[in-house]
Specification:
Blueprint lengths: L1 H11 L2 H4 L3 H19 L3 H14 L3 H4 L6 H14 L6 H10 L13 H13 L10 H10 L5 H15 L27
Length: 193
Amino acid sequence: MEHEALLDAILAAHAASLGASFDGYRNHARRVFRFCLALAGPRAADDAEAYAIAAAFHDLGLWTEDSLDYLPPSRTMARAWLTDNGRAALAPAVEDMIENHHALVGRPGDTRSPTEIFRRADLVDLSFGLRRFGLAAAQVAAVRRDLPNAGFHAFLARAFARRLTVHPLNLAPMMKWRPASFQSWPPARPAGR
């Protein structure tokens, strides 16, 4: 699949930072991407490239910065990659997906934006499919079977345990009660879409 190949190429450039977590994070990013496509339905093709790029970068700062406060570096890396690869027009949408993918609730009335689709897709994966947003349990299970966890959730549990010893009152700095409010909401769509 073309967009998964793009996702893999982005992650290959960060293999040294990901180290032993490479397979686990790659599979998580691919699962999020596939859940985005499934949740988006007929509109999936319109945003597939943005989903793939956002999936590759969305948690990457966790490894490059060795910190659970990874949203700013993840956005920065994505913006730089988009600019360097002639895709700067996708930056507002990709950065919005990264910035808001851990919002506990979506924007009121927003169920179909790429950002909300991405937020839901990440939650489908993080919850092991307990939260599916209308996806069939068999569909989620098939994706999870095709792309095994490879230690991803165990890595996250260890990262949170380490953070607990240092910042017990700020355990999850990447979590948001609700999405950030941007004056530019909704993010601009690239020309021709």
